[in-house]
Design a protein that fits this description.
384 residues; alpha/beta; Aspartate Aminotransferase, domain 2; Aspartate Aminotransferase, domain 1; 7-stranded mixed sheet; 12 helices; PyrdxlP-dep_Trfase_small; lyase activity; Cystathionine gamma-lyase
Amino acid sequence: MSGTEPMGDGTRAVRAGLPEPVKYEPTLPGPVFAAHFHLPGEPTGPYTYGRDSNPTWTHLERAIGELEAPGEAVETVTFASGMAAISAVLFSQLRSGDTVVLPSDGYQALPLVREQLQAYGIAVRTAPTGGDAQLSVLAGARLLWIETPSNPGLDVCDIRRLVAAAHAQGALVAVDNTLATPMGQRPLELGADFSVASDTKGMTGHGDILLGHVSCRDAERAAEVRRWRKIVGAIPGPMEAWLAHRSLATLQLRSDRQCANALAVARALAPREEVTGLRHPGLPTDPSYALATRQMRRYGGVVSFVLPDRGHAERFLDALRLVDDATSFGGVRSSAERRGRWGGDAVPEGFIRFSAGAEDTADLVADVLRALDEAAGRARPRTP
């Protein structure tokens, strides 16, 4: 995409990463399936071997970079999954004897990462996301890992404040931006060294591919992350990369509807007596609302809340008709799950993570309210 004129989110999403037009060629070139490329002479070209580079990745990485930091020089590296992207930052930047700070309330696979870091002689400290608590354990750290909003609790921390404190003592900062996506916040603009995401979720939004990415401004850091990808071979398939790029065109449209639906669901849940612990950064009553309003551009499409017990939560999920009982989030079809079933999150048995999709708002809210009534043993009249 050429030109320096300002663009809205939708325009940028639709055009991001597209090559210059060529007569009779498709707007978005199809996926390139290649293990090797013609390579006479010295291997100095951009595409040499399929584990190192692929033209389909190039288009996608440019597109994500344009969304992460519009108008700026940024490098993006795509991966086979979000966990591959997370691992690439941590294991490319940390060495034995280093200290890393992780959120204690972050994604449930982080404890597995913690065990592996410690096995490599890396000290790990943890603190909750809320209240910028990670500041209390930051001294002497090499890397600070932030997840905001946190998954699944939806706490928000002050990225600028944490970045300033970390950089003042020479620490790097990586932000897991999976829940917000670049439509919701841009960590690089807030000072972070790395913006990381599982693109399996909101970025691609259809629940049909696994993908992840790392974006950063520093070319040397990006090279270290890319080298890690080569070492472990955590590369995306060309079809997945092409599907992801195709999906980015609707990112702004999907995000706007999902965020509006999430807020509508949260408002509908708020007066229910059986609902406790309701969290959504866009609710004025939410503890994170003021900070999220300053820091985020959109509040996200996920709502969390607690029903009285496991049985009540399972009855609610069973009664939903427009919502899939699935473990991911960020898709065009709403999904929800009793998060405690996995055992990896410190949440009550009745804790629900609800991901709002792109359904009509009135239909989705009606489905949620009806399911709540059925779960509580109260029947609502069906609409003719």
